[in-house]
Design goal:
The complex is a heterodimer of chains A (423) and B (269). With 423 residues, chain A is α/β, with parallel strands linked by helices. Chain A is built from 15 helices and ten strands. In chain A, strands 3-4-5-6-7-8 form a six-stranded parallel sheet. Chain A has a two-stranded antiparallel sheet with strand order 1-2. The longest helix of chain A has 24 residues, at 183-206. In chain B, 46% of the residues lie in helices and 15% in strands. The longest helix of chain B is centred in the middle third of the chain and has 23 residues, at 107-129. The chains are: A alpha/beta (423), B alpha/beta (269). Chains A and B meet through α1, β1, β2, α2 and α12 of A and α5, α6, α7 and α8 of B.
Amino acid sequence: MEVMDKLTILADAAKYDAACTSSGVVRGGRPGMIGTATNSGCCHTFSADGRCVSLLKVLYTNYCCYDCAYCVNRRSNDVPRTAFTSRELAELTIQFYRRNYIEGLFLSSAVLKSPDYTTERMIETLRLLRTEYRFNGYIHAKAIPGADPGLTHELGLLADRLSVNIELPSESSLQLLAPDKTRAAIFKPMAQIRDGAAQSKAELKLYRHAPRFAPAGQSTQMIVGATPESDRHILSLTEGLYRKYRLKRVFFSAYMPVSDHKSLPVPAGFKPPLLREHRLYQADWLLRFYGFTAREILDESHPNFDAALDPKSDWALRHPEFFPVEVNRADYEALLRVPGIGMRGAQKIVTARRYGPLSFEGLKRLGIVMKRAQYFITCSGRMLPGLRCGSDSVYRRLVGLEQAELGSGESWQQLSLFEGGAE
Amino acid sequence: MTAYRYDGTFAGFLTCVWDALESGTEPVEFLCSGDEVSLWETRRPATDAEKARRLYAALAKRVSPAFQKLVARGFLTCLPEKELDLLALIRRGLREGDRVRLDLSNPVMARVNLALTKMWTEWDHLKGFIRFSDLDGALVGEIEPKNRVLPLLAAHFAARYSGERLVLYDRTHREAFVSDRGRWRLLPAEDFRMGPAGSEERAFRAMWRKYYQTIAIEGRLNPKCQSAHLPKRYRHVMTEFITDREMEQSLPGQTGGALPRTGEKAIEG
């Protein structure tokens, strides 16, 4: 089979993986090597679905010995099968990289023969790239659950980031849809990667040339909407993953029916829950950068997102006691809680008021968009003159703004702007 | 009412600033050599590298290194009448010191900062969106940016491809970045054409296009989101959006092709 055909089959099989980030590690150019890496990563193009394309994202092979109901590569699915050779894949990566098509390689694989055998093939490819081709760019590798820890470790010494997909948000869903995988088998490599990365960091402090294990950390992904978990369940799980396993990113993937498996029936007219995925990413942002906890965003009485409102505005409306925030005095953390003020805006406010007090006019010149923020702030003790805001009318107006931005509810934007972005 | 006319270079601009500070001139416009005539009395100080160097050093020493950088980077933006804004900032900086940089809500400062943000965004976009072709072993690419980002991109690509020969042409500002195994420089270049690609190059382009089409998920097509992240103005030089023929013909973009050298002003009229 031609490389072109292999590429088509194995990229097609890899495309449902949401992660395509190239962030989290800085490496300058090195003599005799090709490539660099930057902390914020880099998007090289955006596909027709609006997702960032940063890495060459392919499977090593789509021959699989598992039969997971949600997965396009399950062995009972009748699709063309193939596998790269390590040489083909290394050559393709370098040639794409030279032309600045990509920031590096995202190598995943279906499970060929056994997890160990598969991991060995991946190691062989990465070793070829790193040693013979002297590739210094970004590599993201998928750790295969069930592989020997020694092999996973070797993989992590060659890659910048490792990931293990937890696939589904609960054990029972996993049992139902992915009978060949267990929760324990997924969390074991995750813990191993966490500990390996921590150990490598400690060693680097002692010896400058100590080998680096997954310097850009690890990420994971779960499918949303195939099984009945609530948003609150998913968000708490996400928070736990950040805390317990020190993950850099958790990705959500709206369930796309790719199967007619009996335990995963597809109701007529099913649409992938894209809006729900969007809300989860918004909430994920609040967890990672805005100092929110999962409990604050969603609780028992409020287990799912309001489809009509972004989670930050939703929180603000439920906490009138927190507002208004005085722009000229509030600390950075309080400013971050104002709907419409982001990290950059809050930083600008903190800087600019060191020069002198800010007015509403001044805020606009800083580039703060007032249409949401105006209901929640004061400048030197005053609300925006002429503003009317009973809590009902504010809710209606915020919903109106949200609707206008999301469009008809189908063509709203994903947060992919940030997917290659800062972590 | 006074105008300044200079050669469009940073050193030339700093020479004008020197002259303005020394003579107390409050210019109402800056012109570059070669273009429009001015209604105003025009001063034309000859570019003086020594004065420029001394003023540039003074910005770091008397204000701050960060302020010096703000002025130098600000000069690379496509902000209309950027010279007047930068002159105003320099005056304030020399008078008030580095505090000026905190005054983000000041109209001039806000304008310059917004222009800088847009320039860095363009730089960030181009780091990813630039496409090189392997033509006889050299990697060749073209851009058509609004801001003069080529000097800022140069270091990035020189480090990334330190073992390669590189040519990157800026159609807007008509200059080329040339790098030979890590050593690089910028050269003015009036005309540039990509030239035909060999069969291997064509094969990799075809594979990239195929890959690009394959990874989009049909059930999630979202052209609006795609355009928000990858504005259409970049696409006319990107391999996955054009054919081999179009690449060789170096077709102009939607902005209408190369602008005059001192273009920012010419397009306003």
